[in-house]
Records
---
Amino acid sequence: MTDSPQIVRPRILTTDRRKAMALGVAGLAATTLPQVAAARAEEATAPASASPRRTWLLDRGWRFHMGHAADMTKDFDWGINQRTYAKPGLVTSPAAVADFDESAWSHVSVPHDWAVDLPFAPPAAPAPEDKADAVAAHGFKAIGRAFPENSVGWYRLRLPVGGGDKGRAIWLEFDGVFRACKVFVNGFEAGGSESGYAPFKVDIADFLDYEGGPNQLALRVDASLGEGWFYEGAGIYRNVHLVSADAAHVPQWGTCVRSEIDAAGARVSLATTLANHSEGALAVTLRQSVRDDAGREVARAADRQVELAPLGRTETAQDTHIAAPQLWSPASPVLYTLITEVLRDGAVVDRTETPFGIRTVTFDAVKGFTINGQNVKLMGVCNHQDHAGVGTAIPDALHAWRVDRSIEMGVNSWRSAHNPAAQALLDICDRKGMMMIAETRLNTTNPEAMDELERMILSSRNHPSVILWSVGNEEGHQGSERGRRISAELVARCKALDPTRLTTQAMDTGWDGGAAEAVDVVGFNYRTDKIPAWHQRHPNKPVIGTETGSTVSTRGAYENDAARHIVKAYDTEHPWWASTAEEWWTIVANAPYIAGGFIWTGFDYRGEPTPYPAFPSVASYFGAMDSCGFAKDNYYYYRAWWRPDQPLVHLLPHWNWAGREGQPIPVWAHGNCEEIELLLNGKSLGRKAMPRNGHLEWQVPYAPGKLEARGYNGGRLAAQDTRVTAGAPAKLRVTADRKRYSAAIADAAMLRVEVLDKAGNLVPTADSALNFTVSGPGKIIGLGNGNPTSTEPDKGAARKAFNGLAQAIVQGTGQSSGAGGAVRVTVSGAGLASAAVDLSFYS
Ligand code: GAL
């Protein structure tokens, strides 16, 4: 296997971004893909010692093996004798050094989630209740302390640094590893992280062999303990970068850009950290300029001479000014790029690029939320970070696809619940204009929690998408004096690191005191109906619905069936603490002082199975979309009222009710047209006025055929929707989200499979068994169908459809060379005419 990691440039060059568009990488993080080839060439030709920084995305070439949390002999001897930490460099595990036979280890790429590969496991009876709960929380994946054989994973990778890198600063940037990981280089424990969510850096220069020897990276990752009550995955599930920089360099998170709009444009202040890896003092010049989206220089700070102490760090402050800046907003997410260069003896020895945006954000107790002075309602989604087929190992392109699906629904903001978001997601939000509430995992003040908060802020504060820091969620101490004090300390840390943003905390009670006094914007989880009375008591405090709705539904199902864990998708079903979409949105829409609301959730997610916390419910039913991102009916409720200028009618249920002829079927229309007329088989059942922020209902005696809704504005037909009684499943259709893809790990094709009748109508009840074959340099990395009770494997080549739909996620396999080619994915099923889609992967 010749897989080797890819080298990439650190940040987006605006020209690269344009190239990405030209290549048709719609929606994909241009941060990585187009640069790969160019950067490889640079790698091949540039003498390492003289080159500016080199950055590799360590996505390929990893080896993986399960360890064991209870049996040292199955855990590569980790901790086998008393001397584990006695002599640094003499690590007791042979798996941590280069000279080790890894031939029995599997080949994996990163991002990687080993939990998603585990079989779904119903709790063995009799199971202790807490063990069963932990398994249910994980979506019936047997991971945690009770399952030591599934809970530790080891990774190995040969690092592409060495010889020419002597004297350089070399480090690894992990964006998120679940969890408790130890990072070894050549047998030295170089670093690690307890947190499964906060990004971290590991300096490795001291442990490398510069004399031509191999440089071996190894990780032991221990997911025995959880940090949440939902599926959290396991392993190196976010991107990893390796950086080799000159001794005089900008360290990770070393740039901080702030802008303030003034009469003449925008004043841009730059706080920059420079570090010296060498043992001698270094005299350097710091040169910084700003480029606009087209790559034109629009500002330049006066050069600064800096003396760097041996092995020291120095912070500098500079100012510059941009005349007539274009502002960042959801409608126009304009980015600038700060170019930071470090010069020694007149030569550029290090260079970074920091994208940023210029915008003003306010939360007001009377006016709600404004961006650049304009009132905007936050129409938000909360999301965890897993997807069908791949668990938490989300390729960058899938992040982008999920953001796009949300934007189509009308979503303008996202709450990363309940943990810091992936940097890839933040980059995408910056570029697509999705606003973000960034949330830390732990609402406490112990050193670990403070450090995690700090890492979240330092890694994310240049992202214009981030509009609020959230310091907690439904904490037991939220309403108490202790809760106030803890949040006050977290807020103080936020302000010290980032005085430009406000803070919030998601609370489900106790809003009259406690943490609500410590944060700037009070967050209500549910109980939206209590906000008006609370607002009377606290008229000067900004407020937001940090969690709203929490309706539960099975996509495409229209009758409850408790025995089969099916929940109907009318906007009627929710747990006791929650409300319908229509109830909460009507309150928020009519109250200018409420900044907005974030529905729980945009997508169904694994684990926390609600409303049925028992096998085979392996997922939550909360999403406006299912776990594949297929729209449920509530998606269209929001789409109607969150994009009111786009006429819409959406009809439910489906119209396949054989055996129910003549019986009344509840028919709903979501939509935003002034009037909607319903017709059955061409006969009008009447025209009704659509209540603002509401929906319409009819009881329609069932007769097979065509149910049709026509939406009128000003008396003219503006939108329509139909449901046709479909016949038996006869054929398949498969469509891809794009035509062209990069062969990089960061890219992926999202395939939608539909089961159709002879006439080409979707069969809305079809659960046909499907088989997938791939020809050419591609492979399926995950399958799904959105059924929260499906316990079929996420991997492989077979999956049933669910209510007519299935999804496949396909990646290029030109891995060693990054080579592209034509890939054909064919989907077949017994008695069904098969279908295929052609994808083109470029290198
Ligand atoms: C909230 C919690 C979320 C999720 C949700 C379900 O209480 O913050 O994580 O559990 O309820 O409605």
Note: The radius of gyration is 27 Å.
---
Amino acid sequence: MNLSKTDPQIAKLIKLEEKRQTEVLEMIPSENYASRAVMEALGTVLTNKYSEGYPKKRYYQGNKIIDEVEILAIERAKKLFKVPHANVQPYSGSPANTAVYFALLAPLKDKIMGLSLAFGGHLTHGAPVSISGKYFKTVPYELGKDGWLDYDAIEKLAKSQKPKIIVCGFTAYPRKIDFKRFGQIADSVGAYLLADISHITGLIIAGVHPDPVPYADIIMTTTHKTLRGPRGAIIMVTEKGLKKDPELAEKIDKAVFPGLQGGPHDNQTAAIAVALRQAQGKPFKRYGEQIVKNSQALASSLNGFGFDLSGSGSDNHLILIDLRTKGVNGSVAAIALEVAGIVVNKNGVPFDTMPPFYPSGIRLGTPAITTRGMKEKEMKKIAKWISLAIDEVKNERFPTEKEARIQFMKGFRIRVEHNKNLKKIAQEVKNLTNKFPIP
Ligand code: DSN
């Protein structure tokens, strides 16, 4: 029986979410629209199978076909990224990074050096609240005053702290990463370099962002961001990594299974294989190029409206707006924009003095709207709407006390949902998104 008959409540919610995704501008930089082919592979009988182990070395029978699926995914990843080893089983990015640490670090002894969460690193790059920060020693680095990576400071810190893993690759950094310099720093202190390219993987494949493969030892990417696949992740080992540690691939595989996970999600593996195939060739290259063009066009228009952009702009898929100069809190702005049909996320900015739940900025990006075919012309319109929407809430006085903030946000949400000007923008957004159907 189909879903709408078996479970009308869930079926209805899915339909509503589909409508929401269609009508708004999805501008959270880690989000995208997976293709129909990817979703088709996800919703198949492959979800029924258990296949602990790796191709041709399984603990369960009946895996001949699953082996072929996983081998295809592995081979496509190796070919696309030009690496000698790929593990396609991690359930998502956080388990994948955790598996790398589990493979290589002694708990409570060895150090992970990653960009601080407050400066655009990920939770799993050593944040104290995450398993990466609780089970391992951590050495956080920060950005320079200009919002850019400060390689001299990173080198100095690495030399004094001697981490075993250095992580580069970020969730809220709008500029290119000098993987070569990171590789030199890691080599100089005998550390592994883990490049977490989750956000920018599509840009690397498209050739519009530097390639970490010659410089990193291990590369981790999620598969659902600029790669446009299903939720999931891939851990790759480079030639360089194998030279540094000939057992690196084996250690990573063992850490994923049986170290951290049980059976891989075979439907997810098949969908990853589909996404990797779709990322080969010219159309995907053009997609990556357009993401960056859109991001830069948007950044330049936002600059024109007086927004203060962290790192002074963007050369990837994302923009981090520091709203302190506008006197608007990030959580307030994010809600106002949502009412206006523009979906972004509140985000800390470098040297933020506000807590993560009420940060001073918003993060937005172009991967999903570029998938819909929008170009520079549309970015100008979007920048204008963002500016108008934030102007609507610029006189909201944000309380300093925690309790008062909770109360304020409740009232604010109700007020803002009735704001006529925001609703007018949402209608204009709907008119625009109508012209750019989700492929
Ligand atoms: N949650 C992702 C992001 O939004 O950047 C990272 O895992």
Note: The mean pLDDT is 97.
---
Amino acid sequence: MSYKQQVANALHTALEQLGAADFSPQKVAEMLETPPNPQLGDLAFPCFQLAKTLRKAPPQIASELAGLVESRYLDKVEAVGPYVNCFLNRSLVTAEVIRTIAEQGPAYGSRNIGEGRNVPIDLSSPNIAKPFSMGHLRSTVIGNAIANILEKHGYRPVRINHLGDWGTQFGKLIVAYKLWGDEEKVKQEPIKELLALYVKFHEEAEKDPSLEEKGREWFKRLEDGDEEARKLWQWFRDESLKEFMKIYELLGVSFDSTHGEAFYNDKMDRVIRLLEEKNLLVESNGALVVNLDEYDMPPCLIKKSDGATLYATRDLAAALYRHETYDFAKALYVVGNEQRLHFQQIFRVLEKMGYEWAKEMYHIPFGMMLKDGKKMSTRKGQVVLLEEVLAQAITDVAKVIEEKNPTLANKEEVARQVGVGAVIFHDLKNYRLNDINFSWEEMLTFEGETGPYVQYTHARACSLLRKGGYQPGSPAFDLDAGALDSAEAWSVVTLLTAFPEVLDRAREQFDPSQVGKYVIDLAQAFNKYYANVRILAEDDRIKMSRLALVAAVVTVLREGLRLLGLAAPEEM
Ligand code: ARG
């Protein structure tokens, strides 16, 4: 139990004695504040809300309460005006958090909220034959981190790559390939070549509108299972996926399912039948739609006038499939903010169909990646290939390592972990809905709020443990808390105790940036401790006690980075 909760329990017991039993331990914990300066203690309990229950003035309540609070976690309790100020027994808190982390290791902060229930997470989901965009990168790293955090709290995340592998554009692509395509070129650089064909199709179609008609025909053939169309589509899909896999491998992300849109082809009739049965389908200009007037939303388009189904229809089929397959606790969609309306429509349609579980579906939107204030776009062949971004980051880090630590073992591996980590962290330290400005400098520096900074701090802490001959686990039980009596150590300790709460917030809000910001704070606090306290002291017990705190920092930084999807090399 956190010390905050311990203090809240003690306050609760005292409140019971005063006759305010309706203030539960949990409520009290929520009411606890951090005083504006340390002279006022570590925690303050405001008594305003009690005035009504107890029919007394808050300062009087505070002074009565202060006399009743008792806890071995508290050195001193003092009433100041309407507040009860609590001064922690810092040695006890310090010793406990160090011991807890030493005992639990990477499991520190784990909880069983999810009770093993499934949470399908729709993430990444790039479009076949198109470049993997910055938006897809954001979805991949945000979705993966959310999956890790949910898993830490007892859910079973199911990572689903809902590939954009269906739609009229594949008809166009087939036409373009048959007219101007070259097998060898596609094999060599599939995405680049297929994108070029697609762009060319649109240029030519402006001069010759009959191409559009041909595109529709070929898509129809594809939908009807025509062998040639199928084969080409399968080939485009395979080649594209091979390219995407390179990126996933670099990022260290894997999927439990790559059922894309095409997978739902034979599952859409059922959706349409269900909608019909429930009298939800209406005709509008020859198309079939579900009206969403009552939600102030435009209608959801289910079937076009030419009979073709749509993105939304496939998402409805996918939602039914996921519910039936996973019996989920929640279902998440990590997709850019520009699709907000689409998902609201899907969820509302499911609600209208009478599915209670639609309430447990969440769109998790995120902002854009900007470069010089503009959206990083992949249109018109002007491709910012993500693979190139990752490769560049790795090369840049490799240069820094070559300068700073040329004798480092497995340099390449570390350069990869840090380069890729820089890209991931650059994304995850920001609240997901904010737009991000893509900046090499900001991403790669070993100082400042970056992935490399946190990883470097972790490596530094590891090297300190090696130098000090620290054996993991052992000294935590013979700790000299006096050796850790400094403002710098205390900042580190309070951050360590906060890790579980940070994870709670991150889980509740689907917000990995809580963890991103936290590891920066912890790294900064650790570096102050490192700079101001002689950790490798003469006296062995003092040294080991100080190192025990370092070991706790290593464990938590490492686990925080893991949750975000970053490796934590022990040397760099
Ligand atoms: N392929 C889509 C795109 O790139 C994203 C798909 C998101 N997932 C979903 N179930 N609709 O815009």
Note: The chain has 21 helices and 13 strands.
---
Amino acid sequence: MSTPCSPKSGCRIGATEVRIGALALQGDFREHLAVVERLGHEGIEVRTPDELAVADALIIPGGESTAIGRLAVIYELVEPLRRRIVNGMPVLGTCAGMIFLAAGTTGAAQPQLGVLDVIVERNAFGRQVDSFEADLRVVGLDRPLRAVFIRAPWIEKVGGDVEVLAAVDDPSGGGSHPVVVRQDRILATSFHPELTSDDRLHRMLIESVEER
Ligand code: GLN
């Protein structure tokens, strides 16, 4: 954990400032870091194992999961990421970030961390033009969360240790599919919580650092 005081946000009473990294290889990591800073914590861009080592928690943003995966291989981040996550570092993976955390996809193989015991279906709701917003009921949140889905995946299969916090119906009638899941300190969403002013999922991530 970093120091409780910083020149930027001063000293917070009753809470410790934590340093939240955002994997900054591709995708909308800047939007996530803006949320972190709005909540009074330090946000850092993570592109190297050394930057990862000083983060108390990590956000893996939305974007393009194949690009994030390939760049993580090139930057030699795959093993350091796995190690920190398996050792309990809290993580929030959103959209492509969720895909990168997962054990597999229903499609062709791509670099994945395999730390979250789910199989995802990429682009499950259709193409870019089928992007949509919905008010979701999420376990643990008192009121619905506005969720922005952009070429979003859903979860096709969950492992035994994975808790489903929210699900949505397949628009073509194929039943309901998880879109928010938690496994230990890994929280993953199919949508983009950084694109609304509702920061409750980012707060959940920060709380799991403070609980450690
Ligand atoms: N469709 C992208 C993928 O499969 C994810 C889209 C997103 O992160 N908004 O990687």
Note: The domain at 7-211 is CATH 3.40.50.880 (Rossmann fold).
